Amino acid sequence: MKFLVAAYIVTWLVHFAYFGRLVRGYRRVRAELKDIER
Amino acid sequence: MMKRKLAFAIPIVAALLLAAAYLGLVAAPTEATMGPVQRIFYYHVPSAWTAFVLFLANFIASVVYLVNRSRRADAAAVAAAEVGIVFCTVVLLTGPIWARPVWGIWWTWDARLTTTLILWLIYVSYLMLRRYSTSGQTPLLAAALAVFGFIDVPIVYLSIRYFRTQHPQPVVAGGAGSGIDPIMLKALLVNWLAFLALAAVVAAARYRLEELLALRAEQDEPSPGAPLDQLNSSRIAS
Fold first, then answer.
1. What are the residue ranges spanned by the domains of chain A?
2. Chain A, 4-33: which have a CB under 8 Å from a chain B CB?
3. Considering the entire predicted model, what is its pTM?
4. Each residue of B207-233: b (16+ CB within 10 Å) or e?
5. Cα–Cα 20 to 30 A to B131, which of B24, B34, B90, B164?
6. Predicted-complex ipTM score
């Protein structure tokens, strides 16, 4: 059972780590675009 | 526009993922030999199939880019490759977690495992090429690498059909003698559908980010009439 739980946690850790990276990328680019517009 | 589409898609994907988790973790019968650990199958296998679909999308977008140099195709290729690596990473991590209690080992260099690791390395090198190459031909080189790299996808798929491997033989489309309980098959297919929906939403978001990066790069470019200092500083920065 602990292996099943571990696999489930690992799966979602990988996905959420990538979501976090995407969100950071969006925030950075949007801030840079605003800076350029000013 | 993107926000509105995401606001519409995210609840649907979340509902699909919850239904898939219920089917895989609760509704599907417990496998007699392996016990609960077999349920890893419901996200290991759909993740692998989803990665294959994304690498196929990367291959098609790369061919389109090679034919007509479309920036949209290039952005789609990057998005598909990056999200494909995420799913392939899940496959490479959940596989050993399943193997340890079932085989007694985390890893073995059999045809399926080795070709899957090579597949992951090919697409990581594809992204590293895009990230670190300073050549003006980077998208072209990356597209060529993607076309050749895709050759490994059918090799991975067929490896358990043509080689004797430690990895289990296919239970879906595996020919005579293969097959699983109908409820298990339903859980597997619903999980695949949920992961495909998740991949589509995430790849669309990554595609939009690539468009924004291109827009920023365009706005960073100094106009032809810009002062010489601005032109020089832009060249140094690039």
1. 1-38
2. 4, 6-8, 10-11, 14-15, 18-19, 22, 25-26, 29-30, 32-33
3. 0.88
4. bbbbbbbeebeeeeeeeeeeeeeeeee
5. B90
6. 0.92
